[in-house]
Design brief:
The complex is a heterodimer of chains A (about 15) and B (about 260).
Chain A (H helix, E strand, L loop, with lengths): L1 E2 L8 E2 L1
Chain B lengths: L1 E5 L3 H8 L7 E7 L2 E7 L5 E8 L5 E4 L3 E6 H8 L7 E6 L5 E7 L6 E7 L8 E2 L7 E6 H11 L5 E7 L2 E8 L2 E8 L11 E4 L5 E6 H7 L8 E6 L5 E6 L4 E7 L3 E2 L1
Antiparallel strand pairs in B: 1-5, 1-7, 2-3, 2-6, 3-4, 4-19, 7-8, 8-9, 11-15, 11-17, 12-13, 12-16, 13-14, 17-18, 18-19
Helix pairs in contact in B: 1-2
Classes of the chains: A mainly beta (about 15), B mainly beta (about 260).
Chain lengths: ~15, ~260
């Protein structure tokens, strides 16, 4: 089953 | 002070159409280089990045960096008061609590003056890592809009697959399934054509929420073509160029196996 992660999984917070 | 005059005021109207449903309010950062704004949707699944370089404006002055915290619903209401061929000027003081918008009709027989109150917006800025994308696809923006709309009827997920010379969009749901393939055209200089570039010819397939792809297509009128960049396990990039001096880009987290 596919889930929807948020962008924080891929991008860092500046 | 900050003052930016945009001969083609419709650009700002179109850009906001592509932003307002995704981000309720944002910090429009003005510097000598131009105006930029980035923000995430409330679910933090999609990032929207607008860049309007100073060259896009026929007059641009920004003595000190200025942040315009704008409520996009209000900004949009005011921009709807401008005609498509109006010249739009944005003005603000150095540490502003309001921004002035001036609309001039093309033949200069009507001027409208608005003031929008600014809000303090506390938002995090995301660092987007440099990525070597496995596939870069250019398609007519109207075609992409239509495909996203058509496939949304089948389910909440659209799968984008790129293989040599071809990009395929598919959706599956309770009522059935759909698959739309666009083949690379011969002459890629034409805006009506499709181009597919791949790194190492490795096929790439990713799943995305159709709801967000449809939000992105609200920017269709900004550009005749849209660029999609894909990389396994990475957010999709959907870019609309604003002439040679600006862009509206969206980053969308893929759906992944649990």
């Amino acid at each position: 089953k596919k889930v929807q992660p948020t962008l924080s999984r891929f991008f860092t917070t500046k | 002070m900050f003052e930016a005059r945009l001969l083609q005021g419709s650009i700002l109207k179109k850009a906001l159409e592509g932003i307002r449903e995704l981000i309720t309010s944002g910090n429009w950062e003005c510097s000598s280089a131009g105006i930029s704004m980035q923000g995430m949707d409330p679910s933090h699944v999609a990032l929207t990045v607008l860049m309007l370089q100073n060259d896009l404006f026929d007059q641009f002055r920004c003595d000190r960096n200025v942040t315009l915290g704008l409520n996009h619903a209000t900004f949009s209401k005011i921009l709807k008061c401008a005609a498509n061929d109006d010249i739009i000027t944005l003005k603000a003081e150095d540490q502003p609590d309001e921004c002035n918008l001036l609309f001039q009709s093309a033949n200069d027989d009507k001027t409208s003056d608005f003031i929008i109150k600014l809000t303090d917006i506390d938002q995090e800025t995301l660092g987007i890592p440099d990525t070597e994308y496995a596939a870069t696809v250019k398609v007519p923006s109207v075609e992409f809009q239509r495909i996203c709309r058509d496939l949304s009827q089948f389910g909440d997920t659209i799968i984008i697959s790129v293989k040599k010379g071809c990009v395929e969009f598919s959706g599956t749901g309770e009522i059935g399934s759909a698959k739309i393939a666009l083949k690379e055209s011969g002459n890629v200089d034409d805006d009506e054509k499709v181009s597919v570039e791949m790194d190492k010819d490795t096929p790439c397939s990713l799943s995305f929420a159709s709801r967000y792809l449809n939000y992105f297509t609200k920017a269709t009128s900004l550009s005749d073509t849209v660029t999609l960049q894909l990389c396994p396990e990475h957010p999709l990039v959907v870019s609309y160029d604003i002439g040679d001096n600006g862009s509206l880009k969206y980053y969308l987290a893929p759906k992944i196996e649990e």
